[in-house]
């Protein structure tokens, strides 16, 4: 038995020696084969630059690496001493690695824990320059080898200077120079001992120790700060008296000017770009430190025009409400290129730092601009532009609240085309009541156009009146789908992304999908073109280009809470929305132009649209829209129901004695079926590319829009405005 144990012990000893020799040889081979890169050559700041669609005009930059490299000699002794005290007190004597730290990390792993730090300043510097932040054994082993090599080949002073020039201090500041500016608004060379001790404390965990994080963060920082001062005293860097004085409290933190990268109107665009890059699969580290070149869809001339126009009419309309009126008025402009979905311009606020809310992305009641999707739903269910509808006040079956038009106007029987031109509430509600699941059909039409469901999308027959909340960008996208003959292309702001070497990493997809029948899109455009030429949108008819669009004014009781004009040419779709107040729900009527009692969509919103589009369309040809196909008349037939068609001229509207809105409550029993999926149904015939059908013989020929020299239209009178309230909406 004793001989057995002696043999076992001998065998074990041999195995241990073999393993030790193998490990040693492996370490030698690894050490010899691992080359130390040149930190000064390989290290880059990796700021990502954002450009307008010309790829030349700079929009801004996205980078957490706000850094300005300084030399070792420019760094004060206090920051060198403080950093060593905070992170690696054996820095001047160790070989680049900490044996104690390695043992602690190994013990943690042996107990089933995660890979820990235990890193010296040299190891941290190696990790920053050459390695990932992954906590793996392979990365840790390579870090150790490189740290040993660096400790032997690079002077300690260079290692410390490189470390202090690259380490992250929070607040987007990389390196001691940027950190000194970010926290104390001084150059690094001017840092005091307490300030240096604070910065050395913060770099351990910038989020945890940032003094702007509140009382608890300052308390954590104070404890860490005192630990650093203790180390400096122990090393003889400060006297006992200095230690005691500094330890009483943290130094003062002055108010530091905010980095203006996000300032002004460009801040909103940069945030959109950042968010879309994340959605497209880029990581935060790639976006903010990957050295990307991002070409956006924003057109510099169009964006400048959107900002100038928005600010101009904000001031002009705001002055109608008094000295401080403009402060509470919020015009919003969103402009999309038809056929590609490229967002050309966006205005929704004046300064991103002051307010991060962009009104161009904020959903508000769409009012009668939402009726466009009812037109599509109607034609999908047997209605034509000549179908007869009720233009008078009436109470739908099963409802106790009458539907009224603006100023309670009575129109008699009207066509769908006339109802669209004059934004006749009663006619649209009448159409919804005649369609099986009419509100669901309308919701599907909006979804197919690219408008996502939002707040206020209750499925009831009053849905065309526009309680549904939609953002200007979504409305511009939805109308762009119609302008694109029913092909939907998602709106986007990132066109192309390349890396620092010029390699293309991403290109936006701009291929459209036919979500609305082509002939229905043609007829919808024809109806909207007549809104501009003959109806409530006539304020923009002198632009000099064929225009199709819709006005919208949302009324709640006696207040106008949103006013819209959404329209398109063959090339550009633009939505303009006005709201007021902090929440965007205040009354707009105080901002109405002199002589107008109501802030209609056909007034300032239409003028804003025309002023912006005059610049955005500059240099583009005037293209006519496709001719109407006269769906459900001489063209394709959709739906199983034959609808009554008007063959006589539409009567002239006769206003009732009442010329004021009569507030009425919402319907008490709305229907709420589930939302259908926005997909093209197979039962409806596919659109074809055959020549358009001729007009019915009982209708006049289609008027072609004239092309006069562009002029800025004046504000129309109240009767060029919009329709009624019915408790929540108007034209």
UniProtKB/TrEMBL annotation:
Transmembrane domains' residue ranges: none
The Penicillin-binding protein transpeptidase domain, residue ranges: 338-579
Pfam families reported for this sequence: Transgly (PF00912), Transpeptidase (PF00905)
An MF annotation (GO) of this entry: serine-type D-Ala-D-Ala carboxypeptidase activity
Bias (Pro residues) ranges: 664-676, 702-716
Region (Disordered): 623-731
Protein name: Penicillin-binding protein
Species name: Acidipropionibacterium acidipropionici
């Amino acid at each position: 038995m004793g001989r057995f144990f002696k043999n076992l012990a001998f065998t074990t000893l041999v195995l241990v020696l073999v393993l030790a020799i193998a490990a040693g040889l492996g370490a030698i081979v690894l050490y010899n084969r691992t080359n130390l890169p040149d930190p000064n050559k390989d290290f880059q700041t990796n700021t990502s630059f954002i450009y307008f669609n010309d790829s030349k005009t700079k929009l801004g930059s996205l980078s957490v690496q706000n850094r300005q490299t300084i030399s070792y000699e420019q760094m004060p002794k206090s920051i060198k001493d403080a950093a060593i005290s905070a992170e690696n007190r054996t820095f001047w004597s160790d070989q680049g690695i900490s044996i104690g730290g390695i043992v602690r990390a190994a013990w943690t792993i042996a107990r089933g824990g995660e890979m820990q730090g235990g890193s010296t300043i040299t190891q941290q510097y190696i990790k920053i320059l050459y390695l990932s932040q992954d906590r793996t054994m392979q990365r840790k082993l390579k870090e150790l080898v490189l740290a040993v090599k660096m400790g032997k080949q690079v002077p300690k002073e260079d290692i410390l200077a490189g470390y202090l020039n690259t380490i992250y201090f929070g607040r987007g500041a990389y390196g001691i120079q940027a950190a000194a500016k970010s926290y104390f608004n001084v150059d690094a060379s001017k840092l005091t001992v307490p300030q240096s001790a604070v910065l050395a404390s913060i770099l351990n965990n910038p989020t945890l120790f940032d003094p702007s994080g509140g009382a608890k963060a300052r308390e954590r920082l104070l404890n860490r700060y005192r630990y650093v001062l203790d180390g400096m005293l122990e090393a003889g860097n400060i006297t006992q008296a200095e230690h005691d004085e500094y330890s009483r409290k943290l130094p003062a933190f002055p108010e530091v000017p905010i980095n203006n990268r996000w300032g002004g109107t460009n801040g909103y665009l940069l945030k959109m770009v950042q968010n879309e890059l994340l959605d497209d699969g880029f990581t935060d580290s790639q976006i903010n430190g990957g050295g990307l070149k991002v070409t956006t869809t924003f057109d510099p001339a169009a964006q400048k025009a959107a900002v100038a126009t928005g600010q101009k009419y904000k001031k002009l309309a705001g002055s109608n409400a008094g000295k401080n009126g403009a402060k509470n008025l919020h015009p919003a402009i969103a402009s999309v290129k038809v056929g590609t979905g490229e967002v050309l311009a966006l205005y929704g606020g004046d300064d991103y730092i002051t307010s991060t809310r962009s009104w161009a992305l904020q959903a508000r009641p769409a009012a009668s601009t939402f009726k466009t999707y009812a037109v599509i739903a109607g034609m999908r269910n047997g209605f034509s532009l000549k179908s007869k509808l009720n233009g008078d006040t009436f109470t739908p079956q099963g409802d106790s609240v009458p539907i009224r038009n603006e100023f309670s106007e009575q129109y008699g029987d009207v066509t769908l085309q006339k109802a669209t031109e004059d934004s006749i509430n009663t006619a649209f509600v009448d159409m919804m009541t005649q369609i099986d699941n009419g509100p669901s059909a309308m919701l599907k039409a909006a979804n197919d156009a690219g408008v996502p469901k939002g707040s206020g999308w209750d499925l009831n027959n009053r849905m065309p009146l526009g309680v549904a909340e939609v953002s200007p960008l979504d409305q511009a996208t939805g109308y762009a789908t119609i302008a694109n003959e029913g092909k939907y292309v998602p709106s986007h702001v990132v066109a192309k992304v390349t890396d620092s070497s010029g390699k293309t990493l991403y290109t936006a997809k701009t291929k459209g999908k036919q979500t609305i029948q082509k002939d229905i899109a043609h007829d919808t455009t024809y109806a909207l073109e007549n809104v501009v030429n003959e109806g409530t949108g006539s304020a923009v008819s002198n632009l000099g280009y064929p225009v199709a669009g819709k006005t919208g004014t949302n009324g709640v009781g006696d207040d106008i809470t949103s006013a819209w004009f959404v329209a398109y040419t063959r090339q550009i779709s633009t939505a303009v929305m006005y709201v007021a107040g902090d929440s965007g729900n205040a009354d707009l009527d105080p901002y109405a132009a002199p002589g107008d009692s109501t802030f209609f969509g056909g007034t300032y919103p239409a003028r804003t649209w025309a002023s912006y589009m005059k610049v955005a369309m500059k240099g583009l040809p005037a293209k006519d829209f496709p001719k109407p196909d006269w769906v459900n008349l001489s063209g394709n037939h959709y739906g199983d129901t034959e609808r009554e068609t008007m063959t006589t001229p539409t009567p002239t509207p006769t206003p009732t004695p009442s010329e004021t809105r009569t507030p009425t409550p919402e319907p008490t029993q709305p229907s709420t079926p589930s939302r259908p999926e926005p997909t093209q149904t197979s039962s409806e015939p596919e659109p074809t590319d055959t020549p358009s059908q001729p007009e019915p013989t009982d209708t006049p020929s289609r008027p072609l829009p004239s092309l006069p020299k562009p002029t800025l239209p004046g504000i129309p009178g109240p009767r060029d405005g919009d329709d009624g309230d019915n408790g929540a909406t108007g034209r």
